[in-house]
């Protein structure tokens, strides 16, 4: 039986009186791209540290690659995990290649592997330059390169695109896609929700040390009370017809603004509303709630489930 790369069962972690994690259970499947979202202080970094075996859980079990992170055997597993911390700090006076050599030695990976990962992140030409001459994006790529050393099956990326410009972010995800194609399991955290919502297979929303929600984006959407917005462009005379046709439906809310009609409706009513609009031959655009809206819709505290 192949075990899941990550299995957490009822994990809690306290720092004195502070309960950073409270009964967190989750499973990440092999090859999955898994997102971790949460406000500052929600417990994401603590969860990462537990999964990397850097901190012990107060209660519950954390198994990574089938091995309990509290067991002595986990040291071996950790070497096979790639990790890009939130702020990748390194020796500025060394060249990129020299920095990677250090990491290769720590990970017991042959130094000959360094050139390949530098190429993978598009840093071959800068490999001989000292790190203090690098831009923020180049430093981050170097950090990414060290996480990729040794071809890890499991990669943790803590806010990897923090501080990158849009081009740097696009580059980062292009490289990440290539890494994914090799079948690695990836856990990624981000504050930029819109950025990861279409890039992860599943995600967890954390709040106050607990999992507030988890699932695919579609599952989260269907569980939340957040209406889709359907915008129709009216032709003369159609406003009244639209109002009359929607009236029996009860649920959808219509707002009229000149030639623009905005209808807010729950997912179960969407097809009925679209049928009305199609009958009137109106042009429509559908705006689904973004993850950002779902997340902010929590008000930081509650999940409004059906
Ligand atoms: N070493 C520590 N000692 C005491 N309290 C801690 C420690 N590490 C974390 N905490 C507390 O645990 C809670 C969760 O912190 P954590 O850093 O995991 O949150 P986070 O979601 O990663 O936040 P951010 O997005 O700001 O990085 C916070 O209340 C924090 O103050």
From TrEMBL:
It comes from the Bacteria. Residues 6-233 form the ABC transporter domain. One of its GO terms (molecular function) is ATP hydrolysis activity. Keywords: ATP-binding, Cell membrane, Membrane, Nucleotide-binding, Transport. Pfam families: ABC_tran (PF00005). InterPro entries: AAA+_ATPase, ABC_transporter-like_ATP-bd, ABC_transporter-like_CS, ABC_Transporter_VariousFunc, P-loop_NTPase. This is ABC transporter ATP-binding protein. It comes from Rugamonas apoptosis.
């Amino acid at each position: 039986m192949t075990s899941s790369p990550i299995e957490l069962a009822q994990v809690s972690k306290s720092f004195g009186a502070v309960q950073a994690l409270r009964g967190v259970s989750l499973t990440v499947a092999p090859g999955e791209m898994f997102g971790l979202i949460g406000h500052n202080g929600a417990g994401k970094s603590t969860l990462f540290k537990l999964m990397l075996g850097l901190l012990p859980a107060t209660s519950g079990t954390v198994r990574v690659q089938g091995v309990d992170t509290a067991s002595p055997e986990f040291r071996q597993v950790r070497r096979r995990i790639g990790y890009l911390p939130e702020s990748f700090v390194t020796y500025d006076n060394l060249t990129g290649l020299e920095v990677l050599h250090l990491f290769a030695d720590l990970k017991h990976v042959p130094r000959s592997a360094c050139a390949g990962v530098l190429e993978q992140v598009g840093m071959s030409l800068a490999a001989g330059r000292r790190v203090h001459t690098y831009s923020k994006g180049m430093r981050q790529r170097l950090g990414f390169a060290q996480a990729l050393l040794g071809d890890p099956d499991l990669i943790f990326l803590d806010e990897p695109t923090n501080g990158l410009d849009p081009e740097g972010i696009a580059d980062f995800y292009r490289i990440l896609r290539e890494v994914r194609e090799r079948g690695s399991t990836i856990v990624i955290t981000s504050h930029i929700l819109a950025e990861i919502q279409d890039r992860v297979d599943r995600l967890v929303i954390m709040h106050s040390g607990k999992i507030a929600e988890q699932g695919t984006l579609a599952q989260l959407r269907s569980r939340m009370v957040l209406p889709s917005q359907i915008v129709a462009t009216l032709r003369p005379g159609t406003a009244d017809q639209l109002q009359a046709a929607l009236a029996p439906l009860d649920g959808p809310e219509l707002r009229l603004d000149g030639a623009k009609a905005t209808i807010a409706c729950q997912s179960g009513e969407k097809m009925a509303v679209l049928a009305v609009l199609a009958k009137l031959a109106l042009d429509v655009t559908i705006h689904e709630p973004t993850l950002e809206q779902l997340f902010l819709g929590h008000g930081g505290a509650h999940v409004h489930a059906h």
